[in-house]
Each structure stands twice: as structure tokens, then as C-alpha cells.
TrEMBL record:
The gene is purB. This is Adenylosuccinate lyase. Catalyzes two reactions in de novo purine nucleotide biosynthesis. Catalyzes the breakdown of 5-aminoimidazole- (N-succinylocarboxamide) ribotide (SAICAR or 2-[5-amino-1-(5-phospho-beta-D-ribosyl)imidazole-4-carboxamido]succinate) to 5-aminoimidazole-4-carboxamide ribotide (AICAR or 5-amino-1-(5-phospho-beta-D-ribosyl)imidazole-4-carboxamide) and fumarate, and of adenylosuccinate (ADS or N(6)-(1,2-dicarboxyethyl)-AMP) to adenosine monophosphate (AMP) and fumarate. Residues 65-308 form the Fumarate lyase N-terminal domain. PANTHER family: ADENYLOSUCCINATE LYASE. The keyword Lyase applies. GO terms for molecular function: N6-(1,2-dicarboxyethyl)AMP AMP-lyase (fumarate-forming) activity. Residues 329-449 form the Adenylosuccinate lyase PurB C-terminal domain. It comes from Microbacterium mitrae.
Amino acid sequence: MTSLPAQPLSPLDGRYRAAVAPLSDFLSEAGLNRARVEVEVEWLIALTDRSVFGTSPLSDDHKAQLRALYLDFGQAEIDWLAEREAVTRHDVKAVEYLVRDRLSQLGLDAIAELTHFACTSEDINSLSYALTVKRATLDVWLPALRLVTAKLSDLAREHADAPMLSRTHGQPATPSTMGKELAVFVWRLERVARKIEANEFLGKFSGATGTWSAHLAADPELDWPTVAREFVESLGLDFNILTTQIESHDWQVELYDLIRHVGGILHNLATDIWTYISLGYFTQIPVAGATGSSTMPHKINPIRFENAEANLEISGALLNSLSQTLVTSRLQRDLTDSSTQRNIGVAYGHSLLAIDNLRRGLGEILLARDVLLADLDNNWEVLGEAIQTVVRAEVVAGRSSISDPYALLKELTRGHKVGGDELRAFVAGLEIGDDAKARLIELTPPTYTGLAQKLVDEI
């Protein structure tokens, strides 16, 4: 058997490439290296702006030419770094050499030794991961989630007045509306999304063991922690002053747990919509030319929601692994986190793919209100709750002497169907006030939805 031509091993880089491509700008190896170049260049500029060791601030042209190294980062830089890393066997050192090479091209060899000055690799990596994860989260992942919540909000409002039979423990229960049930997911998702937006993205910049030892050896008079804080914050990041060689990754653990939490909510949404489709509550809009089943022509399979389920499970497992691994580092440093963090993009990719499927799936369903109404009409016994509750109120008010309203309705409704005529006849014979009796006689399963429609306004 001959070998295949070179193929992507991960489906994220093959079959599903289009759906997750925006993450590559940040969470790919190239995206990480571009951020590393950015940090190295900006650190050098920050040092010369302070005129450390007798240097002078760079001209605006030189700053622009240096920044072009990461702003215009492309295939040429990717190839250059790959070739150099093959020799150095160290990815961050290769980045340092790339910056030095640009300085030489610009005739700035005199400040070359300020490249990577007093830095450990983790200073560069800490800020680079914070930059890439922040941008991937806020610029790609969160906007995609917002599209899903916006679509859910639209559906919730559209179907706010659509009464449906609830199912608690899988059994017929007090009716709600489809809009209110969808609004619950919007409420849940927005709550966690706000926490993600407020999450810190921390970076450290304090040298080999987090003590600024080399910095002070070079210039004991300079307030290096303040210099580091101002530099980190100039990149739009939060500063962690107390670390070992590595930034402790707690902000990443918190973030990945929140994203995993969102994934759990979305998984719940996917399974609920799948179930509503199986009940006939939602119909799926046929796509011209699409095949649902290879052998059963009538079928339209809910593949968007099934695909979302699977990818959320994969993403959740990876995010959980990231959280468990990144929270620990032996003594002042080990390299476990280095390998682990290279899978951040994979975890985000499966999550983004699931979100994309949910967004598209929600746009391919229609509510079958007639099915909802037929289901309600077949389950009048759900009004048993309303009747026994009203009777209890009447007993308290002194308008009834019924001894056990719950048992009375349990005997009437539990384990067998009761139609509308039977319930109305039952109510007519109850010892309760006329107003209460009239309200119950007028009540139907579709009208027994409480504040469900109004609750949609809360989202």
C-alpha cells in the first residue's frame, strides 16, 4: 500500500479548516511566534525610550521598521524562524535572532544587546500567550458565541407566546413557552460571557526566578518592577508581580474553566434542541441537494446539533486537562506547561467548531406550533397542579373544607389520561368559591403558562 500525499492529521486543519481558521492568527505556532516578536520588539523600544545605559530613543522610522517585523509577519518570517530553530533547538532564541537580524539590516547593531535583555524565555512566552489567548478569546471566540446568543434571543422573542408541554424527568409537566425555555439558555450564556470578558490576562516580566536579579545587577538604581509593570500594561495585559520563573497560569485556569462552563451550557442546548426535533416540536429546513440518510430518503438528521455535542465534549476534555496541568509547576520551573499550552488552539478550535454548528443549526429549524398545541391537548392532566393549588388557597380562605386537595387530584390524574370535559366536570363539583371555580373552568393547558411569555423580556 502506497503512502498518501501529506495530509492534515487533525480535522481542524482538514475537514473543518474554514470554520476555525480565524483562530490560526493567534493560537497557531506562527501566531505565537508573531506575538513573541512583538514582545521582543516592544521591549527593546521601551528600553531605548527610557534611554537605559546611555541609549537614545529610536526614531519614528526605525520604530515603524522594527514593528513591521510583527505587523507584517508572514511566510518569510515563518520559514526564517523554522530554519534557525532547527539549529538553535530553542524557539524563543530563534525569535531573538530574528529581531537581531532586523536590527542589523537597519544599522542598529549598537543596541542589539538590548534584544531579549534580562529576559528568561518565560518572560516572552508569558506575555505572548497572554496576548494570543486574549485576542483569540475576545476577537474570535466570544464574538462567535455572541452570534449564537443573538440567534437564541431572536428565537426566544419570536416564540415567547408559543405554549408547549414541559417535561420534567421526561414526563408531562406544567406548560411553559418555547420562547421562555430558549431564553433560559440566553440568560445562562450571557452571565458566563460577562465573566469571560472580565477575566484577567496576566503576564510576568521579572527574569529567571521572578526576582529581577539580573536587572539589578545591570542597573541597581532603576525601579525595574515599575518598568516591567508599565511595559506589560502597555501591551494591554495585567501585571503579575509575584511569580517563579513562570507566570503561574491561574488566569488561564480560570478562563478555561469558564469556557468549559459555556461549553456545558451549549451542550445542554444542543441536546435539548435535538430532543425537541425528535418530538416534532421543531422541523428542519431541507437544504437543496443535501442527503440526510444514505438509505432512508425521508430523513433530515440533526447533524448540526450532534456535531456540536461531540466537539464540545472534546473541547471540554482538553480545557479540563489544560486547567489541571497548568495550575502546577514543580518548584521554580518545569516544562510541562510548554507542551500543554501548545494545545490551547486545539481546545478553542473544537469549541469554535461547535459554536459554528449551533449557529447554523439554529438557523435551519422552524417551530411546529400545531404539534405543540396537539401535545398540550393530549395532556390535560397537567392542570392538576393548578386545581389542587387553587383548592388549597380556598381552604385557607375559608371557602372550602376539602381535607387533602393534593390526594384528591392525585387520585383523579395520576397514571391515566384526563380530558378537558372530565376536568371541567370535576371542577364544577368542587366545594370552592365561584370566582375560583370560574377561573379553573376557563383554564386550558395552552393558557396555563404563568409568566413564561413575560419572562422572555428579561433577556
